[in-house]
Write a structure and sequence with these properties.
By secondary structure, the chain is of the alpha+beta class. It has 12 helices and 38 strands. It is globular and about 70 Å long. This is Oligopeptidase B.
């Protein structure tokens, strides 16, 4: 029996907001004051309340954690990838939270990646960076950059010990092991070396956490002497930097949500002025890849699902068509190798790879056996190669690494992620599970795909419990993925479903466009339609269905809680964007201005304001019977600030006090939650124990 405890009460002076004649009172705005002792006290009290309310699940949490640990090969080694004279790989060691990054020299005649027994270190390995040593004394640790120079001498790496994605950049001399005095604080993701490794390019952010500057740093000099190579003043845009696979050019990518611009610097002349590939035009997106005498341009100019063209590398100008637009086949990226191009695409809701020989030979798509799967290129650092590495997975197939011969079309499995025997001692067998593709019918008649996995023989009579997962924003696709922790749910009879709702990119650019801006509500109604369909089709019943989503998927969770509270027995909202209108109204907050092309600008447009207000979860809490809700957040999250779920839970308790609402805050983490793998497993065990409790399977 759960011990009776009292929920924390959030009572402070309310704040007032006025926009377009609308006056809004926010009783819990004070929770945004991160440094206020009252805020920390409130979050601490919420954590204590959550722990007390879930104390009866402590044994189940330990059991689920142990099942994940037991099934995972803790001491392990990734498939080494070759770059120049070295094989690069990462090891994990039993009992250690973080990976160990290593390399080993290629030996004479060695063409196949070396392997070791049970993940042991390779003979002759060189440790480049040990995350466990770097993390000592810190509750959180994350790498931002990990970039070996073209000559293999230098390693540029950056670290974050808070979870706020502000990294300190350093350079290590791999020939001596010395970390140079070169140190740059407050950097962002993205680095690029000059071809002679004398110069390192990196990125910093502005006060709103927008990556807005690319810098040039000469190795061995103080960071105070670094030079700004590009500064982006338009607040809708952000910047990135990368070195082409050919190592001929440094690319400066400049993007908004709907518009792109790329500038290039010859990697052999790092002090040169960036040259413009094509000036930005509103609504036109393009990316650039270098290939011999040309730049490949993947673009949407007159091509909703994108087309591929090229222009001269010496004098960029007109775009010459290479792959014409084909509606329904979304071209997502192109990777150039000396004698082949590989295009990553999606069609009919599935990912794919198309190989295009340079010169003689026909293009072909690589075939895969399962009806539902996810495939993409892995690390492929070598430009001159006839072999590429790809990753493959499905809901029942563990992550698999293949090498594919671009000429003979032979594919060799290099490694499949081991799944060790579970608590019953049986080895993992994909045949013990089933995966299915189903379709729901949305309110407007649109067919929405659903991917499902369950134990073989699970009845379709409505008796099985189910978890339905969704995201539906930013054209991000929730392609099928394998999860060891999920096996603990499946083995307890739970069905796991992924709703591929509009706002994502599963069915091409149209699918995304129909779930954003003033069509955003399609995302929410699609998800409810999927939930209703699962019940109608006999997969589950509404009192046996838990919904789960994170970040923008947390907005989805809050929206469907208001839209159809009767459809779910429980809702898990991780780092949820539930106070979206308030955040998008504040240009000083991280990412707000860059988000206006995703959600609309409610500051400038009364229609957008009214539309967002009509669906934002925090604005629409009502006195109804909500399902049980678990909100999980992190104090140092810079993408979705912790106070959004904190305010949401407080308002739910005040307006619908009969409900069961819990808030769990990681006090030393960021958007991705705990950083160490064991801590992540414990977090997942906590959530899954709560889910099983609400499904009656605890």
């Amino acid at each position: 029996m759960t011990k009776k405890t009292s929920a924390p009460v959030a009572n402070r002076v309310p704040a007032e907001r006025t926009h377009h004649g609308d006056i809004v009172i926010d009783e819990y705005a004070w929770l945004a004051a991160k440094d206020d002792p009252a805020t920390i006290a409130h979050l601490t009290a919420e954590n204590a309340y959550t722990e007390a309310r879930t104390a009866h699940l402590e044994g189940l949490r330990a059991e689920l954690f142990e099942e994940t640990r037991r099934r995972t090969q803790e001491t392990d080694l990734s498939v080494p990838s070759r770059k120049g004279g070295y094989w690069y790989y990462t090891r994990t060691v039993e009992g250690q939270q973080y990976g160990v990054h290593c390399r080993r020299a290629v030996r004479d005649g060695e063409t196949v990646p070396p392997v070791s027994a049970d993940g042991a270190p390779l003979d002759g390995e060189e440790v480049l960076l040990d995350g466990n040593l770097l993390a000592e004394g810190h509750d959180f640790f994350a790498l931002g950059a990990f970039d070996v120079s073209p000559d293999g001498r230098w390693l540029a790496y950056s670290t974050d010990f808070a979870g706020d994605e502000r990294f300190t950049l350093r350079i290590k001399d791999l020939s001596t092991g010395e970390v140079l005095a070169d140190e740059v604080p407050d950097t962002f993701y993205g680095t690029a070396w000059s071809v002679d490794a004398s110069v390192l390019f990196y990125v910093t952010v502005d006060e709103a956490w927008r990556p807005n500057r690319v810098w040039r740093h000469a190795v061995g000099t103080p960071s105070t002497e670094d030079v700004v190579v590009h500064q982006e003043d338009d607040e809708r845009f952000w910047v990135g930097v990368d070195l082409t696979r050919s190592e001929r050019f440094v690319l400066i990518d400049i993007h908004s949500k709907v518009t792109s611009e790329v500038r290039v610097i010859p990697a052999g002349n790092p002090t040169g002025e960036p040259a413009l590939i094509a000036a930005r035009r509103q609504g036109i997106e393009y990316t650039v890849e270098h290939h011999g005498h040309r730049f490949l341009i993947l673009h949407n100019d007159g091509a909703e699902d994108f087309a591929l063209a090229y222009t001269s590398a010496d004098a960029p100008g007109d775009w010459v068509p290479l792959i014409e637009h084909s509606p329904g086949t979304r071209l997502e990226s192109v990777d150039a190798f000396s004698d082949h191009l590989v295009v990553s695409l999606r069609s009919n809701g599935l990912t794919g790879l198309r190989v295009i020989p340079v010169g003689d030979g026909d293009a072909h798509d690589i075939d895969f056996p399962e009806p539902i799967y996810s495939v993409g290129l892995d690390a492929n650092p070598e430009y001159r190669t006839r072999e590429i590495r790809l990753r493959y997975t499905s809901l029942v197939t563990p992550d698999s690494v293949y090498d594919y011969d671009l000429v003979t079309r032979q594919m060799v499995l290099r490694r499949r992620k081991p799944v060790r025997p579970g608590p019953d001692g049986r080895a993992y067998d994909p045949a013990d599970y089933e995966q299915h593709r189903d379709w729901a019918l949305a309110d407007d008649g649109t067919r929405v795909p659903i991917s499902l996995v369950c134990r073989a023989g699970t009845p379709k009579d409505g008796s099985a419990p189910c978890v339905i997962y969704g995201y539906g924003s930013y054209e991000a696709s929730m392609d099928p993925w394998f999860s060891i922790a999920r096996l603990s749910l499946l083995d307890r009879g739970v069905v796991f479903a992924v709703a591929h709702i509009r706002g994502g990119g599963e069915l091409g650019r149209r699918w995304y466009d129909e779930g954003k801006l003033l069509a955003k509500k399609n995302t929410f109604t699609d998800f409810v339609a999927c939930a209703r369909h699962l019940v109608k089709a006999g997969w589950t019943a509404s009192d046996r269905l838990v919904a789960r989503g994170a970040s923008a998927g947390g907005l989805l969770m809050g929206a469907v809680a208001n839209l159809a509270p009767d459809a779910f027995a429980g809702i898990v909202a991780q780092v949820p964007f539930v106070d979206a209108l308030t955040s998008i109204l504040d240009p000083s907050l991280p990412l707000t201005v860059t988000e206006w092309e995703e959600w609309g600008n409610p500051l400038a447009d009364p229609e957008v304001y009214a539309y967002m207000k009509s669906y934002t979860p925090y604005e629409n809490v009502a006195a109804v019977d909500y399902p049980a809700i678990l909100a999980v957040t992190s104090l140092n999250d810079t993408r979705v600030l912790y106070h959004e779920p904190a305010k949401w839970i407080a308002r739910l308790r005040a307006i619908a006090p009969q409900g069961d609402y819990l808030l769990k805050t990681e006090m030393g983490a960021g958007h991705g939650g705990p950083s160490g793998r064991y801590d992540s497993w414990r977090e997942e065990a906590f959530i899954n124990a709560w889910i099983l409790d609400k499904l009656g399977r605890a």
